[in-house]
Design a protein that fits this description.
Elements (H helix, E strand, L loop, with lengths): L1 H13 L13 H16 L4 H21 L7 H7 L3 H27 L27
Helix pairs in contact: 1-3, 1-5, 2-3, 2-5
């Protein structure tokens, strides 16, 4: 979880400085769709930390869209992607999408963290691998 959080923070900081922002979204689902597309682009980065943030962001924003609008037409993303400006997507990612995703991941990490002073659970050894079945002798 720490790796995910540090990857998210690093990717947000690594992005190019903000350019001109895209026009305001007409609905929360459209805003999340723009973030989803920005995360898809980030997942195609050659940097592994950015790839991980992008992959996590894809799941996060897809869930936000589907949870809010179960009838959202995901095929509309193709047309939206064709009209997106790369600099505007980077600005959205840095100013809006990345911070929103990072905040949620930090909240999850905090919620799942053991209480202060708690003893971590003992590691349970992995179960033994079952023995291969005996082959019958050849006649």
């Amino acid at each position: 979880m720490r790796l995910l959080l540090s990857s998210c923070a690093a990717a947000t900081l690594i992005l190019a400085s903000a350019a001109h922002a895209q026009p305001a979204a007409t609905s929360p689902s459209i805003s999340d769709a723009r973030c989803l597309l920005a995360m898809v682009a980030l997942s195609n980065s050659s940097d592994q930390n950015q790839q991980r943030m992008g992959q996590g962001g894809i799941v996060y924003f897809t869930g936000r869209i589907a949870g809010r609008d179960p009838n959202f037409d995901f095929s509309s993303l193709k047309a939206m992607a064709a009209n997106m400006d790369l600099q505007a997507a980077e600005a959205d990612l840095k100013q809006h999408c990345g911070p929103m995703f990072n905040k949620s991941m930090q909240q999850v990490a905090t919620a799942l963290a053991p209480p202060p002073g708690a003893t971590p659970p003992a590691q349970t050894p992995a179960p033994a691998r079952p023995a291969a079945p005996a082959t019958p002798p050849r006649k």
